[in-house]
Amino acid sequence: MTVRVLILPGLFDSGPQHWQTQWEQRFSGLHRVEQSDWQTPTCADWVLRLHDKVMASQRPVVLVGHSLACSLIAQWAQQYPEAAQRVRGALLVAPSDTEADSYPEGTTGFTPMLMNPLPFNAITVASTDDPYVSVTRASAFSEAWGSELVWLHKAGHINDQSGYGAWSEGVDLLFKLTGDPQFQHG
């Protein structure tokens, strides 16, 4: 059975050059979870929207979160442990530290950062120079979540501003979680 891949952008959504948008356009079976407020989000609203999308899926789900969406996934998994059993895995890219001074103001309910094991396979991808999370905190998140940790050297926030458009290495990581041949490199 194929999976349903849910694309979960972070704060301000993912623009047309962002790897999440490019993947969504390139591959079938990827669906963006649209939030009602990308500028000043409330965690409870984002969690409920994600929950609705997971529960509506007739197939197992793989979550692809960027930035604030990594926190969203951890919050949702804690609040809905039974529903989390529907998730085959999560790709957690550039997790933002919502407790850091560098994190933009305007979000509500995304702190504290949850440090509980995720009940599904996960891969965290972090950059050595992300302005929104330190190397120490990214390591701590990955360890707490029980995820595999993949480091990218000086990759910024792993977004379009950092030069990550189609991001083929990320597609390879997605294949590890889905097993779906459409994501197999080569």
Polypeptide structure, described:
- By secondary structure, the protein is α/β, with parallel strands linked by helices.
- The protein has a single domain (4-183), classed as Alpha/Beta hydrolase fold, catalytic domain (Rossmann fold, 3-Layer(aba) Sandwich), CATH 3.40.50.
- Helix content is 30%, strand content 18%.
- It has 5 helices and 6 strands.
- It has helices spanning 19-26, 43-56, 68-79, 135-145, 168-178; strands at residues 4-8, 30-32, 61-66, 87-93, 121-127, 148-152.
- A 6-stranded parallel β-sheet has the order 2-1-3-4-5-6, with helices on both faces.
- α1 links the parallel β1 (4-8) and β2.
- α2 (43-56) packs across α3.
- It is globular, with a radius of gyration of 15 Å.
- The mean pLDDT is 96.
Detail the topology: elements first, then pairings.
Elements: E1 4-8, H1 19-26, E2 30-32, H2 43-56, E3 61-66, H3 68-79, E4 87-93, E5 121-127, H4 135-145, E6 148-152, H5 168-178
Parallel strand pairs: 1-2, 1-3, 3-4, 4-5, 5-6
Helix pairs in contact: 2-3
Q: Summary?
A:
This is Alpha/beta hydrolase. Helices cover 30% and strands 18% of the residues.
Residue runs with pLDDT of under 50 for 5 or more positions: none
Structural class by sheet pairing and helices: alpha/beta
Major sheet description: 6 strands, parallel
Number of strands: 6
Shape summary: globular
CATH topology, by name, is Rossmann fold
Radius of gyration: 15 Å
CATH class: Alpha Beta
Read across the widest sheet, the strand sequence of neighbours is 2-1-3-4-5-6
Give the name of the CATH superfamily.
Alpha/Beta hydrolase fold, catalytic domain
CATH architecture: 3-Layer(aba) Sandwich
Organism: Pseudomonas taetrolens
InterPro entries: AB_hydrolase_fold, RBBP9/YdeN
Keywords: Hydrolase
Protein name: Alpha/beta hydrolase
